[in-house]
Structure formats: C-alpha cells, structure tokens
Amino acid sequence: MAYRAEYIWIDGTEPVPLIRSKTRILADGAEAPMWGFDGSSTNQAPGENSDCVLRPVFECHDPIRGGDDRLVLCDVLVPETMEPHKTNTRAACKEVAERFADHEAWFGMEQEYTFFEEGRPLGWPSEGYYYPAPQGPYYCGVGAIEIAGREIVEAHTTACMQAGLAISGTNAEVMLGQWEFQIGPLGPLEVGDHMWMARYLLYRIAEDFGVNASVSAKPIKGDWNGAGCHTNFSTNAMRENYDAIIAACEAIGAADKVEEHLEGYGHGYEERLTGQHETAHFSEYRYGVSDRGASVRIPWQVAQDKKGYIEDRRPNANIDPYVVSRIITNTVCSAIDPA
Known about the structure:
By secondary structure, the protein is an alpha+beta fold. It has 2 domains: 86 residues, Roll (Ubiquitin-like (UB roll)), CATH 3.10.20.70; 241 residues, 2-Layer Sandwich (Creatine Kinase, Chain A, domain 2). It contains 8 helices and 15 strands. The strands form 2 sheets. Strands 7, 8, 9, 10, 11, 12, 13, 14 and 15 form a 9-stranded mixed β-sheet that branches. It is globular, with a radius of gyration of 20 Å.
C-alpha cells in the first residue's frame, strides 16, 4: 500500500510569492524525504542550473484527499551547499525564534482575503459591478444579499480543523466577497507554518468552486476597504505587565524601525494604509487603546487588565508570515534583551 504526500513550498515570484505544490507517492509508513524541483520555473534558479531542494519542515493530515494522505510543507535549499535558498524566509525566522525562545513570543494572525469570480469580487453584480450596495451590512453579515462565499469558507474551516491547524475563528469582512480567518496563538515559526498551510487549503478548496481567493492588499480601488493581516503579538512579560505592553509599542515605533517594519509588511501597503478605512497613514506611527485607526491597537480589555497583547494593524493580506513574525519578535525582544 502507499499514500500521497503533497509537497508544498513558497516560490520566488515577486513582489508576492506564490504557493507551489506537487504530489509524491510513498510507501505506507515511509517518512517524506527531501525532494527536488525545477527552480527555473518558479523564479528560484536559472535554467542552466535549475535544481532546488525541498526539505520537509511541517506535516499534517490531508483533509481534501483523506485517508492516510499528508500535506508536507517544505522550505527550499540550494543543492550545492544545502544552505537555505535566498527565498527561504523560514530559516531566518527560525534563527530569531530560537534566539529569543525565553520570551515565549505568541502570535495570532488575522488573514483577510477576497473571493473573485470572472474578474470581479464574488457576489458583485455582473453589470456595473463597481457599484454594489456600499459597505455597511457585510461585516459579520448574515443573509443572501449581505454574504457571498460562505460555503467555501465553511469547507475551508472544516479542512483546517481536520488538518489539525490552529484556526481560531472566521468572519465575513467589510467588503462584499471579503472574508477572514484567524490562526493562533502560536510561536513565531509555528504561526508561519500554519498560515502557509491554511492558505494552501484556502486556494485549493476555492479552486473546486471555480473561485480565486486573492490576498491583494487593495483588491478594489476607491471607497472600499483593503485587505490586511492584522498581527496580534505578546511575550511572557506582556502577558503579565502593562509596562511591557507600552515598551513593545514604543519599540515597534522607534524611528529606525518603522520603515523596516513597513518594508516587511507586504506589497502595496501605500495603497491600503491611507489613513482611511480603519487604517493609519503609512507615513505616521501611533498607538492607542481601542483605536482601529492607529498603527498599533491596544485592546480595551488589555488596558483594563493591565496585561495581554497588542495588535499591529499595518501588515497586508499578502504578507509572508515568517517575515512579519521575525521582524516583530526581533524588534520587541531585542529592546528588552539587547544581548
């Protein structure tokens, strides 16, 4: 007997990497070994030296195929040296996560995305589709007029749960056809593993419905919300002390850190972080309690309890979660423990 292992990896497409996958048939009980692929077809190698290596780093049950089949998330190595490929952002995240392991950093990421069908957001009128009913009834909405794509969302949620991923919630978002799922709380490396796997399942399941799930930061121009990946973060000190909450907000907003964070927060942040649609302008940094127009929000309950977590509202929907968790962990934990 045998089982199917779906090897999944992140390619070198710019400015937003794509998920790639291919299937390997393995004998029952066999571990997924390292494998190879044509990097010249994924923007990761030249044609004259095209081989790249896939190294399994995280596995889970394949809820689409079922049975004993597995999903195998891989990072990418260079065959000559077996060192991380330049597109392998997981390796740098792992190094930071291990360096600051004593801080017990936790992340919860809120992945917004937009369903598209035939070039327009799902549920938008086929004629004059730039003018559906204005935003208002869609956020956490219920009803055939307010919602489009719930059957896909339910199938995706079930798949994530069956796969053992740390999905912690879903909701309809502010624009018709836009949704969100949440992953976490998990450590800096684990949240990236679970996020990429949950994205794979989202794209794969939407494919069966003839729909594309887009993580564009500004899927529709004009007076419509963009799509973000609000990132909730805490350390053991923040979960016990409000001074550590303020210190984290200050560290993230330091003059030499703001630009570094924005550069790692996904493509197209200038289009999304305009100061409108529940965002701060990308040119400013501020934090505040219960302020959804701030760069970093301190939840009301955290201010009441004098401990907890913060929410960085700037990351885009198209972030690389490994990059975001690495930057935030490094900035905040370095400020607390420079050594």
